C-alpha cells in the first residue's frame, strides 16, 4: 500500500468550464450574440438558397444538423432542447438581419459577404438605440432584481481521492474509513485538489446535489458523497461563506451592465419587429 499521489491541482477541466459558460450565455439577451451566431455556424457555407418567396424563412434540417454538430464539437455533447432552440433563434435573427440588410442595399461593396451585411444591418439598428434616463433609485431597483449576479458565491476547497476499480457505495465507504483511520490509500488512487470552487462549477462537474452534500459535510474529514457519476471519496478542507454585493462599490459596473442590457433589449425588439414581415417554417427539424 502506498500513499495517495496528487495528479492535479488545477480544479475542474477545461471542458467543465466551457460547460458552465454554455449555461451563462443562454441567459443573456439574444442580440448579445447575434454576430457570434454567424461565426459559430460558418454561415457562408451553411445557409440555404433564398426562397422564391422573399417573406418566407425556412429553418431547414441543414441548419438543425449544423447547429447540433457545431455545439457538440465545441461543448463535447449534444445540445438540450433549450440550447437547440437558442441556436435556432441565433440563426433566425441573423437571417432576418441579412435580408433586411439586402433590402436596405447595405451590401453595396460587400457582395456575397454575409457577416458584413449582418453587421451593417445591426449598425442601422444601433444608430436608433436611445437609452432612457435612469436615476439612482431606479438603478438600485434594477440591481436588486439581479442581485445574485453580483454576489460573491460560497467557495469550497476540497480534495477527491479518485480511486480505481470498485466504485460501489460499500467500497467507497470502506476506503473513506481507512483514510480517516490513517491507513494509506490505494497505490492506484490519485488525489485531486480543488481550490475556491463556486457552486456553479461544482454542479457542472458533479451534479445538482453535490454542493448541498458538500455544505453538510464535516470539514477536515474524508467522507463518501454520491455524485452524478457515482460515489466519491471527498475531503472538505475549507468553506468560504458567500459575500453580498455592495451597490455603492459596484455602481460603475452595474450602470454599464444596465446600459448594455437596455441597449440589447432595444436591439432585440427592433429585430423582432423586422421579423414580423416573415413567415417562419421549421420543416423536418429534429426535436
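Q: What amino acid sequence fits the structure above?
A:
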Amino acid at each position: 500500500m502506498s500513499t495517495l499521489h496528487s495528479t492535479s491541482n488545477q480544479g475542474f477541466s477545461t471542458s467543465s468550464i466551457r460547460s458552465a459558460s454554455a449555461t451563462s450565455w443562454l441567459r443573456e439577451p439574444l442580440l448579445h450574440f447575434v454576430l457570434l451566431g454567424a461565426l459559430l455556424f460558418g454561415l457562408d457555407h451553411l445557409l440555404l438558397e433564398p426562397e422564391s418567396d422573399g417573406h418566407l424563412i425556412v429553418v431547414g434540417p441543414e441548419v438543425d444538423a449544423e447547429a447540433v454538430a457545431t455545439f457538440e464539437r465545441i461543448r463535447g455533447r449534444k445540445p438540450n432542447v433549450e440550447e437547440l432552440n437558442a441556436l435556432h433563434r441565433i440563426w433566425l435573427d441573423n437571417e432576418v438581419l441579412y435580408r433586411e440588410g439586402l433590402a436596405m442595399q447595405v451590401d453595396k461593396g460587400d457582395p456575397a459577404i454575409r457577416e458584413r451585411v449582418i453587421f451593417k444591418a445591426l449598425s442601422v439598428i444601433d444608430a436608433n438605440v436611445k437609452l432612457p434616463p435612469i436615476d439612482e433609485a431606479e438603478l438600485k431597483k434594477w440591481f436588486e432584481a439581479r442581485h445574485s449576479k453580483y454576489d460573491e458565491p460560497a467557495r469550497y476547497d476540497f480534495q477527491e481521492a479518485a480511486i480505481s476499480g470498485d466504485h460501489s457505495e460499500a467500497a467507497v465507504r470502506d476506503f473513506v474509513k481507512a483514510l480517516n483511520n490513517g491507513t494509506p490509500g490505494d497505490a492506484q488512487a490519485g488525489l485531486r485538489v480543488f481550490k475556491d470552487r463556486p457552486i456553479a462549477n461544482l454542479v457542472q462537474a458533479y451534479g445538482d446535489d453535490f454542493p448541498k452534500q458538500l455544505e453538510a459535510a464535516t470539514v477536515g474529514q474524508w467522507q463518501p458523497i454520491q455524485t452524478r457519476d457515482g460515489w466519491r471519496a471527498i475531503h472538505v478542507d475549507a468553506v468560504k461563506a458567500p459575500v453580498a454585493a455592495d451597490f455603492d462599490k459596484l455602481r460603475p459596473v452595474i450602470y454599464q451592465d444596465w446600459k448594455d442590457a437596455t441597449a440589447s433589449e432595444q436591439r432585440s425588439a427592433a429585430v423582432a419587429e423586422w421579423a414580423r414581415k416573415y413567415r417562419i417554417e421549421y420543416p423536418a427539424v429534429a426535436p
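Q: And what stands out in the fold?
A: Residues 88 and 168 are 42 Å apart (CA to CA).
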